[in-house]
Design goal:
Mean pLDDT: 82
Strand content: 5-15%
Oligomer: single chain
Helix content: 55-70%
Radius of gyration: 30 Å
Largest sheet: 5 strands, antiparallel
Length: about 750
């Protein structure tokens, strides 16, 4: 591995014009594809295998032409103080609004509030339901403007008018904080390298990689039904890993220059050593993201594969574009530890000879910290575990759900419409349950419909049940059920299960099958499906990565320690997410206007992404320790050496990744906001507590045992030579590494 990447790095350095041309051409091609691609259409949110999805598919089959997946809108009217919606003037305004909406070319139907029993008991609130032929993402802008204009004209009469539903859904915005995150990353890179040129290389390559990835996603969005959130998450992860991977290779290049190597050789060795770590770190991230497919939720699978593709691009760019740009930069990228101004006055030499009378170099902060941990490993280990355990406590109160209009900011018309409907018709009105009765196998379909309706009316937590509405064939009917609790509550979830349990007895009596669907039931099924898939996913991803790390570190205990440390950090991060988004701690600071259940996808998505990113730091930091150990240092000294060379860079990488993720907290999309915060705090816990404290403490306690591997397994495993031992051996023999074909076993 190291020898191959060494050759690749030198080749990219020498043929930098060709390499740069390839990546610029790919960026241009992706950009043209994105610009010429048709706009993304509807994003199908199917949950194969769930009852809600089966009912939805049945509705499309038995009720053709009703656009089951079409956009919906609820135009909510509230009368001025002292008036009723039943007053003649207000009724005329509503009637005019309904007529205007019905004239729309994409409108399937509009329900008049006064004929559809859509006026609250106190008479102050009414709503008109609008159904469209196409989904919210496919609606023409003119249709959306017509909806907004109709609401605005009704407001001019003195009514309060708000619009809910998905007809006005917009592409989520990330806000200015995303740019702030990139700016923070730039500042950290300048401080780390002490050079604008060296700092600019990781940013430039990361932006190119993200540009290619996001443009490709945009170009394929319509064909593959990729949602807007997919590109945002790919951008988030691609930026973070792209900057980090390039950072490690540039740092190693500067270290090789400081040892007196020629620039082409230094570029090759940087790619051969740090590049090997980048390859395996990238593989762990890709495994974690692609592994999301085991959940069998198409939307989540697409998000994972798209983000994994962006990570793969980041790895390839780091291995090829970085050495090419280093060739362009020349002497403007200085050796590690050298001052730019001092070196800039030297025309001939590449480095400055140290003064003969200079004392020993002062130990850097990473060396001093590692030395402290090695002296007090047990105390550091206990303190870190207790701290992460305390942070994880809120995770025991985790409640899962999917965001709806109730989680929108109060400044949006969707949220205000949601609140008005809750005030006028009860909290459950915003999440009605749709019960589908399939009586095709029943001898008396009408009796079956009536029995289902009567059974549901007798259940606890039900406010209203509409009469059965059969299809033209008379073999299927729909019944709307209004719970007395809000859609995301535990009580509503219990009601869904109660209806489904009652359906078993009804089927035995009548032969009719009862299915529960609707957005609320779909959210409940998603949460349960994700919960059921979490353990198998965790076993798959951690198991595959564990095997990969055994190959990298040639150890059993080091990968085991890495996996256990990850579990600590991800549980602590979930605890922080619960504390902020569910309990409301610091919610104002994070821009969380409405607390509620944590997004259903959050735990499994965090497990996948955080595990991959956690292994990044494990690979980057511990490979330097193993490199020192393989080269003859004692285990405790190898820990210190690994921190001496890697702590500063890992710290910078973690701060950059946190800044990039935190930049997405400003998103208008609650899901993106939550993921941005969760990943940022997870990187903090994993990088600064687990990798910087627990890892050296455990390795110090284990000593030589940390690097133990059964001899039979050592012989069976391939030697990937992440430490670059093959390069070192060739150098010691005085031969050219390009001609050395034999890798030395570690």
């Amino acid at each position: 591995m190291a020898t191959f990447l060494y050759k690749l790095g030198r080749l990219a350095f020498r043929r930098r014009h060709f390499v740069a041309l390839i990546w610029v051409a790919l960026l241009t091609l992706a950009g043209v594809g994105a610009a010429s691609a048709p706009p993304a259409g509807s994003t199908s949110f199917s949950i194969p295998g769930t009852e809600a999805q089966k009912a939805f598919d049945l509705l499309e089959q038995r009720f053709p032409g009703q656009s089951a997946d079409g956009a919906t809108a609820r135009v909510v009217f509230k009368a001025p103080s002292g008036e009723k919606m039943t007053d003649a003037g207000n009724k005329a305004t509503v009637k005019k609004t309904v007529d205007e909406l019905a004239d729309g070319s994409e409108v399937a139907s509009v329900a008049d509030p006064y004929t559809g029993n859509a006026v609250s008991k106190d008479g102050t609130i009414a709503y008109a339901s609008v159904r469209y032929d196409v989904s919210g993402m496919e609606l023409e802008e003119s249709t959306k403007h017509a909806l907004e204009d109709a609401a605005e004209q009704a407001r001019e009469s003195g009514l309060t008018v708000e619009v809910g539903g998905d007809a006005l859904q917009a592409v989520p915005e990330t806000g200015a904080t995303e740019i702030i995150g990139i700016a923070v990353a730039a500042v950290v890179l300048v401080i780390t390298f002490g050079s604008l040129v060296a700092a600019g290389l990781p940013l430039l390559t990361a932006l190119i990689g993200v540009g290619i990835g996001v443009s490709s996603i945009t170009a394929l969005a319509s064909a593959l039904e990729l949602g807007s959130t997919t590109s945002i998450l790919a951008m988030m992860i691609g930026l973070a890993v792209g900057i980090d991977y390039a950072l490690f290779i540039v740092s190693r290049y500067r270290a090789e220059l400081a040892e007196g190597r020629e620039r082409e050789d230094a570029a090759g060795r940087a790619v051969g050593t740090a590049g090997s770590a980048v390859v395996f770190a990238g593989l762990t991230v890709v495994i974690a993201l692609v592994g999301l497919a085991v959940v069998n939720i198409p939307m989540l699978t697409k998000m994972g594969i798209a983000a994994a593709g962006t990570v793969a691009i980041a790895v390839l760019i780091a291995l090829t574009m970085i050495p090419a740009l280093l060739g362009y930069a020349g002497r403007r990228v200085k050796p590690a530890g050298a001052k730019g101004g001092l070196l800039g006055r030297r025309r001939g030499g590449e480095k400055t000879e140290p003064k003969k009378d200079a004392g020993p170099a002062k130990a850097n902060l990473g060396t001093r910290w590692a030395s402290f941990v090695v002296r007090r490993p047990l105390a550091v280990l206990l303190l870190g575990v207790i701290g992460l355990g305390a942070a994880a406590i809120p995770a025991s109160d985790l409640e899962l759900g999917l965001p709806d209009d109730g989680s929108q900011p109060t400044s949006t018309t969707q949220r205000r419409a949601y609140d008005l409907l809750s005030d006028g018709f009860g909290p459950g009105f915003n999440g009605p349950l749709v019960v589908v009765v399939d009586a095709k196998g029943s001898d008396a379909p009408k009796d079956a419909f009536t029995q289902v309706s009567d059974e549901i009316k007798g259940l606890d937590g039900v406010v209203a049940v509409t009469p059965p509405a059969p299809n033209k064939g008379g073999d299927t009917a729909t019944i709307s059920v209004i719970p007395d609790s809000k859609p995301s509550s535990v009580q509503t979830e219990d009601l869904v299960h109660a209806i489904r349990d009652a359906g078993g007895d009804i089927k035995a009596d009548t032969g009719a099958q009862t299915l529960v669907t609707g957005s609320t039931a779909m959210n409940i099924d998603v949460s349960e499906k994700l919960n059921d898939a979490l353990l198998p996913y965790l076993v798959l991803v951690v198991g595959l990565a564990f095997l990969l790390l055994i190959v990298v570190f040639r150890s059993i205990l080091v990968p085991l320690k890495a996996a256990l440390g990850f579990l600590l950090s991800v549980m602590a991060a979930l605890g922080a997410v619960v504390a902020v988004f569910q309990w409301g701690w610091l919610s104002g600071l994070m821009g969380v206007e409405e607390t509620g259940p944590v997004m259903s996808m959050m735990p499994i998505f965090m497990v996948g992404v955080v595990f991959g990113l956690a292994m990044d730091y494990e690979v980057f930091l511990v490979t330097r320790m193993r490199e020192a150990y393989v080269h003859g240092e004692k285990p405790s000294q190898a820990v210190v050496t690994g921190f001496k060379h890697g702590a500063r860079v890992v710290t910078a990488a973690a701060v950059i990744m946190m800044a990039v993720f935190a930049g997405f907290i400003g998103s208008s999309e609650s899901m993106v906001k939550m993921i941005g915060f969760g990943l940022a705090i997870a990187v903090f816990f994993d990088a600064f507590v687990v990798r910087m404290a627990l890892v050296p403490a455990v390795l110090a306690l284990l000593g030589k045992k940390a690097w133990w591997l059964p001899k039979w397994l050592d012989r069976a495993l391939p030697n990937v030579d992440v430490e670059g031992e093959g390069l070192r051996t060739a150098d010691e023999r005085g031969s050219d590494p390009d001609e050395d074909r034999e890798l030395v076993r570690t």
